[in-house]
Design goal:
The complex is a heterodimer of chains A (430) and B (174).
Chain A lengths: L4 H9 E3 L6 E4 L2 E5 L3 H10 L11 E4 L9 H16 L5 E2 L7 H7 L8 E4 L13 E4 L2 H10 L1 E4 L3 E8 L8 H12 L7 E6 L1 H5 L2 H9 L8 E3 L4 H11 L6 H8 L12 E6 L6 E3 L7 E3 H4 L6 E4 L1 H4 L2 H11 L9 E4 L4 H9 L2 H8 L1 E3 L20 E4 L14 E4 L2 H10 L13
Parallel strand pairs in A: 3-4, 3-6, 4-5, 6-7, 9-10, 9-12, 10-11, 15-16, 15-18, 16-17, 18-19
Antiparallel strand pairs in A: 1-2, 2-8, 13-14
Chain B lengths: L5 E6 L6 H4 L28 H4 L5 E4 L11 H7 L5 E4 L4 H9 L3 E4 L2 H11 L5 E5 L4 E6 L2 E6 L4 H9 L2 H8 L1
Parallel strand pairs in B: 1-2, 2-3, 3-4
Antiparallel strand pairs in B: 1-5, 5-6, 6-7
Classes of the chains: A alpha/beta (430), B alpha/beta (174).
Chain lengths: 430, 174
């Protein structure tokens, strides 16, 4: 019978089906951070069940508030750190080695095609870029995942997005996903997997595919997903070369994780993105999106480049291209948070950090902090941030603050202009 | 099983997100009880005052796509520590809905038209909801007016509610 990739992953991981349409799946990876995991840990301790189903399948990082900003966040870090040591979780990333969870875990090769992944973080859908079923869950699902290595889902219904054409210069995965969300709405994919296919996706790097899948949740999607191809194999090669004789062998093995040509999709939606413009959000919902052109001149106070959406090396390179030899205006302030230490180091070696620093950006350590208004760039009431993050909820980056979501190129152009600006004016690739 | 039913808090807007239910800055708390004062602190809704309107309520009735955004279970916990164990809405974000049932609470879905009737008949009044699980229905009443509304909960979700939550259920089976 023909199946979608998500259906294949479900069928391969089925542990129990207690009721019709209740699928309890075995988990290949359970990711943890210091915000949603500590309550699960203290609850397990209180129940006398302080153990983990498999320390090798659990990965943990302190990323949301790092370095700790106060006693409470220090305590959250300590609970996670002590738990990881106690339970033999060797892949635990503490300060100095830590990065934004959805950037560092893929970078370490922890996500493979066909995997089931959960994390107590809604942007876990990012990891679907590798052909995995990856879902954000709450603390109780996380707790059961840690203890038992299982999680329950309904059988996946998939919406297939066929992205046709070729993205114009200066237009990126972020613009594409903002456009898609604007078309289907913030609950357009609720309870559905969003499968991204087509020539635009085929051309994308893994970084761009992660940006695309990262924002599936902003349309309500359970997981984004891209079927693995040679780009996936190339990205993972340093981690898998011991397992396969050649990249072609790896591709053959991973190739089974793709939707059959006659698989049944709930919906197939096609977009030709050849004429897509840079996009930006305007309201307090991620589906309120306009071409940057229509928002030009909107004043901002802060520019933030970073996060699990757009804090990867590709994003930094794009922004640096726009910023090179220029300065941000005095009216605004800029913050860059490279998403992982590896990205930070690459950016240093490539001279990207210099470009940001000379332009007048503050370069912080890798952290999620500013994106959700917890640390490292919180807005004051009434302030506006041009941000490469994923949520423009009212107050998201600080009580009373407003967020405009955009690509790193548009954010960099906005930093120079001091107001929302079309990156095409600045992009040297044009 | 938890207690379900009681006075209603009407939140007449769609897409109320998790950051509005409990802002991220409070996610540094490591006990559920500590979230109590901050429920719906950032909700922008005309006429709504979190400090006055939440007290004594046990049921939230709202519109479409409630709980969208973050995966934080702090959202249902913030409701629970304020005595609210039931949400009635047209639809939910997947993770929020699962978090409610995982904690042994109820996220009831009611069709748009029925929900509109409930809002027009009861919003602004001192309404209360009571449950009849045998008949899979709830009654909403205020000022002598009463309406019975049927609903459907998946067997699995009901099993979680009866078990007291997903951890209890999973621990006994896996």
């Amino acid at each position: 019978m023909s199946k979608t990739i998500a259906e294949k992953i479900f069928d391969a991981h089925l542990v129990d089906k207690p009721f019709e349409d209740s699928f309890v799946l075995s988990l290949d990876a359970v990711f943890c951070h210091e915000i949603t995991t500590p309550i699960a840990i203290t609850d397990l301790m209180a129940r006398g069940k302080d153990r983990v189903f498999d320390p090798n399948k659990i990965k943990a990082v302190i990323d949301h508030v790092t370095p700790a900003k106060d006693s409470k966040t220090a305590e959250q870090g300590k609970i996670l750190r002590d738990w990881a040591r106690r339970n033999g979780i060797k892949d635990f990333f503490d300060i100095g080695r830590n990065g934004v969870c959805h950037a560092i875990f893929p970078e370490k090769g922890f996500v493979r095609p066909g995997y089931t992944v959960i994390m107590g973080d809604s942007h876990t859908c990012t990891h679907g870029a590798f052909g995995a079923f990856a879902a954000g869950v709450g603390t109780t699902d996380l707790e059961v995942g840690i203890l038992k290595g299982v999680c329950a889902f309904k059988y996946p219904k998939t919406i297939k997005f066929v992205l046709k054409g070729k993205l114009p210069a200066g237009v990126y995965a972020k613009d594409a996903i903002l456009f898609i969300i604007s078309q289907i709405g913030v609950n357009g994919a609720t309870d559905h997997v969003m499968e991204f296919t087509g020539p635009v996706v085929d051309e994308m790097s893994m970084e761009s595919r992660m940006t695309l899948c990262n924002m599936a949740i902003e349309a309500g999607g359970t997981s984004g997903i891209c079927c693995p191809d040679m780009a996936t194999v190339e990205y993972l090669w340093e981690f898998i070369k011991g397992e396969f004789a050649s990249k072609e062998e790896a591709l053959k093995e991973y190739g089974r994780w793709k939707s059959d040509p006659d698989a049944k999709f709930e919906k197939v939606i096609e977009y030709d993105l050849s004429n897509l413009e840079p996009m930006v959000t305007f309201g307090n919902k991620p589906d309120q999106v306009k071409p940057v052109r229509e928002m030009e001149g909107t004043p901002v106070d802060q520019i933030y480049i970073g996060s699990c959406t757009n804090g990867r090396i590709e994003d930094l390179r794009i922004a640096a291209q726009v910023l090179k030899g220029k300065k941000i205006t005095d009216a605004v302030r800029g913050i860059l948070s490279p998403a992982t230490p590896k990205i930070y180091t690459m950016a240093l070696k490539e001279g990207i950090i210099d470009i940001f620093a000379e332009a007048g950006f503050c370069v912080t350590n890798p952290t999620c902090g500013a994106c959700l208004g917890m640390s490292n760039g919180v807005l004051a009431a009434g302030e506006v941030c041009a941000s490469t993050t994923n949520r423009n909820f009212y107050g998201r980056m600080g009580k009373g603050g407003t967020v405009h979501l955009m690509s790193p190129a548009t954010a960099a152009a906005t930093a120079i202009a001091g107001k929302i600006n079309n990156s095409a004016l600045w992009c040297s690739t044009k | 099983m938890k207690q379900f039913g009681g006075k209603v808090l009407f939140l007449d807007r769609s897409d109320i997100n998790t950051d509005e239910i409990i802002p991220a800055k409070y996610l540094t708390e490591i006990t559920k009880e500590a979230l109590k004062p901050y429920l719906l602190e950032d909700l922008k809704l005309p006429g709504f005052d979190a400090r006055k309107d939440i007290s004594g309520k046990s049921v939230v009735i709202t519109r479409d796509n409630f709980g969208c955004g973050s995966s934080r279970e702090h959202a249902p916990w913030a409701l629970e520590v304020n005595g609210i164990t039931v949400v009635i809405a047209e639809s939910y974000a997947r993770i929020f809905r699962q978090n409610m049932f995982n904690g042994g609470m109820l996220a009831i879905e009611v069709p748009k038209e029925k929900l509109s009737e409930i809002f027009s008949s009861f919003k602004g009044k001192e309404a209360a909801v009571s449950f009849d699980f045998q008949k899979s229905s709830f009654a909403i009443e205020a000022e002598g007016k009463k309406e019975i509304v049927g609903f459907k909960i998946d067997d699995f979700d009901m099993a979680l509610v009866k078990a007291g939550g997903w951890l209890e259920y999973a621990d006994s089976r896996y």
